[in-house]
Write a structure and sequence with these properties.
InterPro entries: 6-blade_b-propeller_TolB-like, Arylesterase, Paraoxonase2, Serum_paraoxonase/arylesterase. It is a single chain. The protein contains three helices and 25 strands. It has 354 residues and is mainly β. It has a single domain, classed as Neuraminidase (6 Propeller). It has a five-stranded mixed sheet with strand order 6-10-9-8-7, with no helix packed on it. The chain has a four-stranded antiparallel sheet with strand order 1-25-24-23, with no helix packed on it. The protein is globular, with a radius of gyration of 20 Å. 43% of the residues are buried. It binds calcium ion (CA) (2 copies). The site of one calcium ion has 8 residues, from strand 11, strand 15 and strand 19.
């Protein structure tokens, strides 16, 4: 009898494990391959070899690029080098990426930049907000951009108990922003478990010097975040749920869900086309290849454009798709006057004229 009980328990455990294995493969699109979609006029950007996880382009065509992210479980080609913020002027005939100087009074040796966002104040001052992970913790660094010196002046480090495992931010004021939390747990093993179990314990937090609060919750893994051109809506990518949440923003900064755009790819960072309001998503077509990195079968890249975001039937087009032979692990895309920049978590970055 005891043997039978052991056998039943073993059988049930194996069945459960099998089910979990299938669920993980499905969640990470483990068997998906991409059909190539490659604009003709593209080239890899010199100097950007170790990631370009997030990109934010100013209305003047200056692009900020965060590079050198160290993130548990993901490849890193320069583990001993601190991260950097690069600048590119997309008005130039052949734009080059140049690392920005960072003022003293900020520990550059621990700089581990992740999501970024810019904010232009009424007087024209440009602020750059950067999610930073010194010692794998989360802070938000606020810099003032000094264009003539091509440098960043560090103003403030924001820390808060609600700002844990921060992935991306969108600045909505000189000291106000929304931030996504991508995992509930901070220990790597538990983060893996929460992904496997499909827990919906992550959220969007709002920060201001006087008030910090959770404004939207119930995401598998809240990742990229941005605002609509009119600032009335906030768009949030839930990467492992493979969708984008459209949320209405209220005067008290609370968010209410409006709709969800379901996709078949793991959406990372979002940007908005300044000329159309379309959403551009940097996506991971097969995240299993990202987590089990093999240079001989690398993770691919995919950029989607979502038109008529607020309509009943938004249109989804593929702007770029590659199996990893050119670009691996795309995490963001942003456009300016017919040009597109595509960034990656740990690989290179691509510039195309569309
Ligand atoms: Ca961002
Ligand atoms: Ca991200």
């Amino acid at each position: 009898m005891a043997k039978l009980a052991v056998l039943i328990i073993l059988g049930a455990s194996l069945a459960l494990l099998g089910q979990m294995f299938v669920a993980i493969r499905e969640r990470f699109n483990a068997s998906r391959e991409v059909e190539p979609v490659e604009p003709r006029n593209c080239h890899l950007i010199e100097n950007l070899e170790n990631g370009s996880e997030d990109i934010d382009i100013l209305p003047t065509g200056l692009a900020f690029i965060s590079s050198g992210l160290k993130y548990p479980g993901l490849p890193d080609f320069a583990p001993d080098e601190p991260g950097k913020i690069f600048l590119m002027d997309l008005n130039e005939q052949t734009p080059r990426a140049q690392a920005l100087k960072i003022s003293d009074g900020f520990d550059k040796s621990l700089f581990n930049p992740h999501g970024i966002s810019t904010f232009i104040d009424k007087d024209g001052t440009v602020y750059l907000y950067v999610v930073n992970h010194p010692h794998m913790k989360s802070t938000v660094e606020i810099f003032k951009f000094e264009e003539h010196q091509r440098s960043l002046l560090h103003l403030k480090t924001v820390r808060h108990k609600l700002l844990k495992s921060v992935n991306d931010i969108v600045a909505v004021g000189p000291e106000q922003f929304y931030a996504t939390r991508d995992h509930y747990f901070t220990c790597f093993f538990l983060t893996l478990l929460e992904t496997i179990l499909g827990l919906r314990w992550t959220y969007v937090a709002f920060y201001s010097p006087t008030e910090v609060k959770v404004v939207a919750k119930g995401f598998n893994s809240a990742n990229g975040i941005t605002a609509s051109l009119d600032q009335k809506y906030i768009y949030v990518a839930d990467v492992t749920a493979k969708n984008i949440h459209i949320m209405e923003k209220h005067a008290n900064w609370n968010l209410t869900p409006l709709k969800v755009i379901q996709l078949d790819t793991l959406v990372d960072n979002l940007s908005v086309d300044p000329s159309t309001g379309d959403i551009l998503g940097g996506c991971h077509p097969n995240a299993m290849k990202l987590l089990n990195y093999d240079p001989n079968d690398p993770p691919g890249s995919e950029v989607l454009r979502i038109q008529n975001v607020l309509s009943e039937k938004p249109r989804v087009n593929t702007v770029y798709a590659n199996n990893g032979s050119v670009l691996q692990g795309s995490s963001v895309a942003a456009v300016y006057h017919g040009k597109i920049l595509i960034g990656t978590v740990f690989h290179k970055a691509l510039y195309c004229v569309l």
